[in-house]
Design goal:
The complex is a heterodimer of chains A (476) and B (230). Chain A is of the alpha+beta class and 476 residues long. Chain A contains twelve helices and 21 strands. In chain A, strands 4, 8, 9, 19 and 20 form a five-stranded antiparallel sheet that branches. Chain A has a four-stranded antiparallel sheet with strand order 11-10-16-17, covered by helices on one side. In chain B, 61% of the residues lie in helices and 10% in strands. Classes of the chains: A alpha+beta (476), B alpha+beta (230).
């Protein structure tokens, strides 16, 4: 019996020493010499915009105009931009025909070539409704593309937008794809620039993949067209099938599948497409990729699909500051140091009060409590939970909850209650159920202030139950 | 009973005062969230916040303003105020432009220069040295929106839990409604206090209010547990 007690005392001393080590590592760090300086090898907090500042983009409706050569139909409607790189084919451009067997020589696009002044945004498109719609589309894109924190200020009169993003996000990607992509789609004749089909016929875009013989992956953008789109596609395929002309040369007229004017794929159709009669077309995006790269490519392709599945931005924007402008937070650089000092003070005072109220057992509980909070802080640093004001509030809540738990347990223990720990645990979780639910639900959301709050509660409460059940119960 | 009446009276009074305050003056939305004017000024060097504060104090007097460091090298500043008049803008530009000017250089320049009256707007290049923006507000509903779905899911789970766990305390529907009603009152009281005390409404107010409600809910659960154990 004596030996058992001695082992327990020794183990308790060891645990207290370990706890003190954890507290020091969590609140001070581990410093090692590196390049003649001492460097803390424990990672820093990942701070949110409130403490870390924002990247600001100022978007202005594009008011530029330029004179462009365009294809115009008999009614004066623009049917495409004359492609600069394909002048050589202007005069022998394609005529839509299904009779390839007769080897019709293409002579005309059927449209007139005109020079027109094209405004990036027509006056009629600069309306409050369109500004609002653009804001909504950008908001949805930011959420879809994983922006953890953002704010949008919209001037309803001018359409100007100020977009604030977090430094923790992929800023170049977000600015390029979410803010500036119009999300337009068309299929054009590569030789002439004539638009063969526009986005209105596109029903759905999705990502599909297959595995090649070499066990490598190929990713495709699968486009599904509506009924009229299917008919147009049939004609396009017929027209752009490669064929051999009278002089025995293989002729390959090409089409371009474009997103926002940039080609996704420029191709002709092989002979086996002759009887093509589908409304689905797979556009190869990337081929022969390793399995570990599939997710990255698929995500980027999925984002393209998202743009195509949603409306095109009704207003074209230009960004005033192309790289974004870093705006420093008004919180002091020492905010986290102050927070850490406050936490250490609370833990110190709690330990002292527990010592006064419950004696040595209280002191031990105070040290264990500080160690638990230290562990929570280390986990938050390593898991890279975004620390915002709401996460700091959650951290204080975790501290308060554990103190309540410890006091409640010590009281029961002092009263020599049977099964004191289990009873405390039961009562504690019955009461804190709303917080447990909140911690689970909030963790799954992208928004940094929500997931940060949820994650701090989640890790705090998870470590609390594990730590208290294994260590606190043993020591006290 | 009398104590309860006093509590109800105080709560009703706070609620009424809060409603009146919101109707008359609204919440004290922080400068960052409301529409404001922004003057951006670029120095050719790092600046001291204290210097800018001194200038802003002189120009704005009692008007509220905010200073923000801009760019990685902190050589530009944003001065934000609900409105910046042309006179204030001119005064700010004049003072900011002269802030870190080498006096000797200035004296030599002024000796050689022709005596042409130039305003500060003529002297400085807009878009390069300074910029002026009318920034719109961030809508409160945009800030609240991300919290709605997680809060609704959390609330639904808690409601189901209350109905199951505390069914012995009476009709579950009444228990749930009573709890929701109490939480609604707490929410309105907290919002009233924010409106009355003119605490700036920032993005952090929402999670803090949510925490207050969740903690109140935990206290309610504690009372339920006590009743259950009776």
């Amino acid at each position: 019996m004596k030996g058992k007690n001695l082992t327990k005392i020794l183990m308790s001393i060891l645990l207290v020493l370990l706890s003190i080590a954890v507290i020091i590592i969590a609140f001070v760090g581990i410093y090692v010499p590196k390049s003649n300086k001492l460097k803390n090898i424990i990672p820093d907090y990942k701070l949110g915009t409130e403490a870390n500042g924002i990247i600001e983009y100022r978007l202005v409706p594009d008011d530029s105009e330029e004179e462009i050569e365009v294809w115009v139909d008999s009614k004066g409607n623009i049917k495409g931009y004359v492609e600069d790189g394909s002048e050589h084919t202007h005069d022998e451009s394609v005529e839509v025909t299904s009779d390839l067997e007769e080897n019709t020589t293409t002579t005309d696009t059927g449209f007139n070539e005109e020079v027109r002044t094209i405004k990036k945004n027509e006056e009629s498109s600069l309306t409050k409704e369109n500004f609002e719609k653009s804001k909504k589309l950008i908001e949805n894109r930011l959420e879809k593309f994983g922006a953890t924190e953002y704010n949008i200020r919209l001037d309803e009169k001018t359409g100007n937008m100020v977009i604030e993003l977090s430094q923790n996000d992929n800023i170049p990607y977000l600015s390029q794809v979410a803010l500036l992509s119009a999300g337009d789609f068309d299929i054009i004749d590569y030789q002439t620039g004539v638009i063969l089909m526009d986005k209105s016929h596109l029903k759905d875009a999705t990502v599909v993949s297959n595995v090649g013989d070499n066990n490598k992956y190929n990713l495709y953008l699968q486009l599904t067209f509506d009924d009229s789109g299917k008919e147009i596609l049939k004609e396009i395929v017929k027209q752009y099938i490669s064929y051999t002309n009278e002089s025995g040369e293989e002729v390959q007229e090409r089409v371009s599948f474009r997103v926002d004017g940039s080609s996704l794929m420029t191709t002709y159709f092989p002979d086996d497409f002759e009887n093509f009669d589908q409304n689905i077309l797979n556009i190869p995006y990337v081929s022969d990729i390793e399995v570990e790269d599939v997710n990255d490519y698929a995500e980027s392709l999925d984002n393209i699909a998202y743009l195509l599945n949603h409306d095109t931005l009704p207003v074209k924007y230009v960004v005033g500051n192309s790289n974004g402008l870093f705006i420093e937070s008004n919180l002091s650089d020492n905010t986290m140091t102050i927070v850490t000092l406050v936490i250490v003070s609370i833990l110190g005072i709690t330990t002292l009060l527990l010592l006064i109220k419950f004696g040595a057992r209280g002191f031990l509980a105070g040290i264990m409590n500080a160690c638990l909070i230290g562990l929570v802080i280390l986990v938050l640093k390593y898991v890279k939970v975004v620390i915002s004001i709401s996460s700091i509030v959650a951290l204080f809540a975790v501290i308060a909850l554990n103190i309540i738990f410890i006091i409640s347990y010590l009281r029961r223990k002092n009263e020599n209650e049977q099964g004191a720990y289990l009873e405390t645990l039961k009562r504690y979780y019955a009461i804190t159920f709303p917080l447990v639910v909140m911690s689970f639900i909030f963790t799954f959301f992208v928004s940094a202030s929500i997931s940060g709050l949820g994650s701090v509660l989640f890790w705090g409460m998870l470590l609390q139950i594990i730590y208290n059940t294994i260590i606190l119960k043993y020591v006290i | 009973m009398k104590k309860n009446k006093i509590i109800f009276f105080v709560l009703a009074l706070i609620l009424l005062a809060g409603i009146i305050m919101v109707c008359v003056k609204g919440f004290n939305v922080s400068l960052d969230l409301r529409a404001h004017d922004t003057l951006k000024f670029s120095f050719d060097q790092k600046f001291n916040r204290e210097d800018i504060t001194k200038i802003c104090d002189e120009v704005f007097k009692d008007k509220i303003y905010e200073i923000k460091k801009v760019e990685v090298f902190s050589d530009s500043v944003y001065i934000i105020s609900p409105t910046i008049t042309e006179k204030e803008e001119e005064a700010l530009l004049e003072k900011l432009n002269n802030l870190y000017v080498n006096e000797d250089v200035e004296a030599t320049e002024s000796e050689g220069s022709e005596e042409v009256e130039q305003t500060i707007f003529d002297k400085l290049e807009k878009g390069k040295k300074y910029d002026f923006y009318h920034d719109s507000k961030i809508r409160i509903r945009d800030i609240v929106k991300p919290y709605i779905i997680p809060s609704v899911i959390t609330a639904l789970i808690i409601v189901v839990y209350i109905a199951i766990r505390y069914k012995k305390l009476g009709n579950p529907f009444i228990t749930v409604c009573k709890t929701l009603g109490e939480m609604l009152v707490i929410l309105l009281e907290v919002l009233s206090i924010i409106a009355i005390t003119r605490i700036p409404f920032t993005t952090t107010v929402i999670p803090i209010v949510m925490f207050i409600i969740i903690i109140s809910l935990c206290i309610r659960f504690m009372m339920f547990e006590k009743e259950l154990n009776k």
